[in-house]
Amino acid sequence: MPDSTRSFMSALPADVRITEVGPRDGLQNEKELVQTTDKIRFVELLAEAGFPEIEVTSFVNPRWVPQLADAAEVLAAVPRRGGLIRSALVPNGKGLERALLAGVDKIAVFTAASEAFSQRNTNATIEESLVRVREVVGGAKAAGLPVRGYVSCVVACPYAGPIEPAQVRTIVDRLLGIGVDEIDLGETIGVAAPADIERLYDGLQGVLAPEASTLHLHDTRGGGLACAFRAMQIGVRSFDASCGGLGGCPFAPGAAGNLATEDLLHLCHRSGIRTGIDREKLLAAGRYMAAALGRRLPGRSFAADATGASASSATTCAGS
Ligand code: HMG
Ligand code: MG
Q1: How do the domains of the chain map onto residue ranges?
Q2: Choice among 153, 227, 243, 249 that is catalytic
Q3: Has 268 been annotated as catalytic?
Q4: 61, 109, 123, 258: which to mutate for ligand 1, most atoms within 8 A of CB?
Q5: pLDDT in tens, 33-45
Q6: Disulfide: which of 155, 238, 292, 297 matches 38 by Cβ 3.0-4.6 Å?
C-alpha cells in the first residue's frame, strides 16, 4: 500500500457502531399506513442482520404521527434477543408511560437547536421541550433505562436557515446536564457538506468529543456519505442510518430520508471498517419493506442491485 494511502486510511476507525432507525425515522414519514405485521417483520429482518440497536418506533402523539400509532404492538412483538437494544422515541411523560408498558429497552428524547423547529415539531419552545425531556429522563432512569438525547437542526433548520454551532453547544450542554447518556446530533434536513461537520465538532470542543457522539445524517442532497466519512476521520464512531434511505420528518418539509444504511456499510466495509452487520441480510430487509410499500427504496445500493452492478461488493470485503 502506498504511504499516502496508508496515512489517509489510518485516520479511519477499525469499528463503527450503526443504529438502524428505519422503522422509526424511516416509516414516520410514509403517508399510507404500513401494516403492523409488515413493520414487525421488517424489524425482525433487521435484527437478523446484526444491528446492536434498532430504533423500533416512537411513542409520540398519534394525532401528530398516525403512522406510528401502533408503537406498543410493534415494540412488544419484537423479541429482545442476542443483546439487541430496542429503542424508541419518547416526547413526554405520556409517551414514556406507553413505552415502559410496551417493554422498551432504551429511550430517545429529543429537542432542537432551532426555536422554529421545536415549535413545529413538538408544539413547544426549546425551554418547554427541555422541561419534558427532564421529566422523561427522570422516569427512564427510575426504570433503569439508558437515554439518548437528540438535538435536531445541528447545521440548519427548515424554517430558520443556518444554525450556529454555538447554539448546538448550548443545547448539548443542557441535555448532558439533565443526564442523558448519549448525544445524537441530527442533521435534520440533509444540507451539510464535510466542512459543516468540521465546524460542528469544532464548536463542540470541551463539551462533546466526537468519540462520545452519534451522528444522525439525512441525505437530501447526496452529501451524507461524504459527511460520514469526514466525521469518521474526525473521530466519530457511532452513526444512525436507515435501511434503504427511507424516511424524513413530517415537520421538516423537503427533507429526505436518512443516510441509507447499506450505502454506509458499503463505504465502511470497502474501507476495512468493521460494523458487525451482514449487508446481504440488510438488503433482504430492504427488499421486504420495498415490497410492502410497493416501490423501490431510494438508497443507491438498491438501484445498483437492480442493475446487477453490486458485484456482491462489500460483503466480500474485509470487516462486516
Ligand atoms: P400536544 O398535542 O401539544 O400535547 O403534543 P398535549 O400535551 O397538549 O396533549 C394533547 C393530547 O394528546 C392529550 O389527549 C394527550 O393525552 C395526548 P386528550 O387529553 O386531548 O385526549 N398526548 C399523547 N397521546 C399519546 N402519546 C403521547 C401523547 N402526548 C400527548 N406521547 C407532543 C406534544 C410533543 C407530544 C407532540 O407535539 C408530538 O408528538 N410531537 C412529535 C412529532 C414527531 O414525532 N416528530 C418527528 C420525530 S423528531 C425527528 O424526526 C427528528 C429526529 O429524527 C432527529 C433529526 O433528524 O434531527 C429525531
Ligand atoms: Mg431524523
Answers
A1: 13-317
A2: 249
A3: no
A4: 61
A5: 999 999 999 999 9
A6: 292
